[in-house]
Design brief:
258 residues; six-stranded mixed beta sheet; 8 helices; disordered N terminus
């Protein structure tokens, strides 16, 4: 089965790599000056003033992710990590290149998207579950486990606007990990909650590794790269500069700051 959307293709083939990226390019237009009204914009155009500059974020990336790999993507701020993750998730589309996804992909990029602060925690659990594709019956079955994992049982019927930001992230994370997916995209979601809750998250990611779940992790934590990843990629200035053993990639990343 194959579904194509622009330059992002989804395929179901048990023998194929989980993700294939070919010659991937992405740029953004950054405004350099404001044009107040159509008249100013017209004169700027006549004078050859674009009013923007083009920032090339990804510059021809090529790589594959095998089924069952726990891949870390690292690099300094502005290296293109989050842009790459959002292209893999289908949030952004590249102007050149191709991404092939083999299986169902679940992004853990912005936890709590879809939460309504005026609704209770209980109502938001069902709302967020629906956004993830779960039926009410399925949510009923996992409801108690969600609250137990989040350690927020006493707050179920309070409005979400009364939750702290940490409480909201814990609840969102507890819902998100119920999502069914062949491939998980993670963006620094290991750093949620207090130390005790982070340990629960760590245990969850250790289970992903043990069960050979395909995972893509974007992170600045070299400790997590060394601990969880079976392979890592180092990005710099929109290009892959190293690809391979997580310990060697972590060492190379740290040398960028020396």
């Amino acid at each position: 089965m194959k579904r194509s959307i622009g330059t992002r293709t989804e395929i179901t083939d048990l023998n194929a790599p989980a993700i294939t990226v070919k010659n991937l390019h992405k740029s953004f237009r950054l405004p350099t000056e404001q044009a107040f009204g159509l008249k100013q914009a017209f004169f700027n155009r006549l004078r050859g003033i674009k009013g923007y500059k083009e920032q090339k974020v990804l510059k021809g990336l090529d790589f594959e992710i095998k089924q069952g790999e726990f891949l870390g993507i690292v690099g300094r701020n502005g290296s293109g990590k989050s842009t790459l993750l959002k292209i893999l998730a289908g949030i952004y589309y590249p102007e050149k290149g191709e991404v092939t996804i083999n299986g169902n992909l679940v992004p853990f990029i912005e936890l709590g998207v879809g939460f309504n602060p005026e609704l209770t925690g209980r109502e938001n659990v069902y709302l967020n579950g629906a956004l993830l594709g779960f039926s009410n019956t399925e949510m009923d079955a996992m409801y108690n486990d969600i609250w137990k994992f989040a350690e927020l049982e006493p707050f179920q019927d309070q409005k979400l606007k009364n939750y702290s930001s940490g409480m909201q992230v814990r609840l969102a994370f507890s819902i998100a990990i119920r999502a069914r997916g062949d491939i998980l995209l993670l963006d620094e979601v290991l750093a949620v909650g207090d130390a005790a809750f982070q340990q629960k998250c760590t245990n969850y990611f250790e289970s992903l590794k043990e069960n050979h779940q395909t995972v893509v992790l974007v992170t600045h934590s070299m400790e997590n790269v060394r601990k969880f990843c079976t392979r890592a990629i180092l990005l710099d200035d929109g290009k892959i500069v190293k690809d391979g053993d997580p310990n060697k990639i972590a060492d190379a990343y740290l040398k960028l700051w020396s």
